[in-house]
Design goal:
It is a single chain. Helix content is 78%, strand content 0%. The protein starts with a helix and ends with a helix. The chain has one domain. With 60 residues, the chain is mostly helical.
């Protein structure tokens, strides 16, 4: 995944969060929830890679 794809994931997660915060009767399908968890795991892995890069002074 590249940074544009991660930006799309972050945007979609943010939109889902707002819906969850403000909608009373919201139901999320299991498949969508699984997809979000998978995307979140990839997102966290990418952030960890970036942290190692920054802390280690390495190149991208």
């Amino acid at each position: 995944m590249n940074e544009k794809e991660f930006a799309k994931i972050l945007t979609a997660e943010h939109e889902d969060r707002e819906i969850g915060d403000y909608e009373i009767d919201i139901e999320i399908e299991e498949e969508r929830a699984r997809q979000r968890v998978d995307e979140a795991e990839k997102f966290v892995q990418r952030i960890e890679q970036y942290q190692q890069l920054v802390q280690g002074g390495g190149k991208r």
